[in-house]
Design brief:
The chain is mainly alpha-helical and 215 residues long. Among the domains are: 2-74, no CATH class; 120-162, no CATH class. The protein is built from 5 helices and 4 strands. The chain has a two-stranded antiparallel sheet with strand order 1-2. A two-stranded antiparallel sheet has the order 3-4. It is elongated and about 125 Å long. The protein starts with a strand and ends with a helix.
Length: 215
């Protein structure tokens, strides 16, 4: 069944209208003829406000529970646990007593310790200890009367007496494909002074030269 509206357009009504056909929209007015569905917007905003309020209440409650549990485990606040605004303290002066105490603690702290520099001083100290053993007489075992002698003296004695001859060791015949290992170069030529030690030695030499010149 067809009828005419006030603008002369055909509008299908009744049982003859196809239910699956898209709805005919009259766009001749140039604007929406029906109002916006305010109910849906109000419902959405109300639900959103309720969700935000419930979330805030839950977060506040969870925070209170956690804080009460922490306070129960940590005990009452004291002067060591109370919150302090460090900005009011300003720059604290250095305490020599505290620095000395820290120095004593770091000296007695068990190894391994953190290096206070890049390791140059530690290497220099190790070489100084090695020099003491290599250049001086020290006890190896005082109960047996054995001593360490300076390396220069040891070299003189070896040059005079020669090295002891090792007994001949009988070896078995090599198997097929084996070869006798040979050392083509020294395994080590000793340690070299680091740049840090060389700079220190140069400074000491400069000081000695200046002192000799002043005399």
């Amino acid at each position: 069944m067809a009828s005419h509206n006030e603008h002369g357009h055909n509008v299908f009504e009744g049982p003859d209208r196809d239910k699956d056909a898209p709805e005919k929209v009259d766009a001749s007015l140039g604007y929406e003829a029906s109002d916006v569905g305010v109910t849906g917007i109000v419902v959405f905003l109300t639900a959103l406000a309720i969700l935000v309020a419930v979330t805030g209440v839950l977060c506040y409650g969870i925070g209170k529970v956690i804080n009460s549990r922490m306070n129960k485990e940590d005990g009452p606040n004291s002067k060591w646990t109370q919150t302090v605004d460090v900005r009011q303290l300003g720059n604290l002066p250095s305490s020599p007593e505290l620095q000395n105490k820290i120095s004593e603690m770091t000296q007695t702290f068990p190894t391994p310790r953190l290096l206070t520099d890049d390791g140059n001083q530690d290497v220099a100290d190790m070489h100084a200890r090695e020099d003491l053993l290599l250049e001086n007489y020290t006890w190896a075992d005082q109960s047996k009367g054995t001593v360490r002698i300076p390396i220069e003296r040891a070299m003189e004695l070896i040059a005079q007496r020669g090295l002891p001859v090792a007994p001949v060791v009988t070896t078995q015949a090599q198997m097929t494909g084996d070869s006798t290992p040979t050392v083509t170069m020294p395994l080590t030529n000793g340690f070299a002074r680091t740049g840090f030690e060389q700079e220190e030695a140069a400074q000491e030499e400069t000081v000695k030269t200046e002192q000799a010149a002043q005399k």
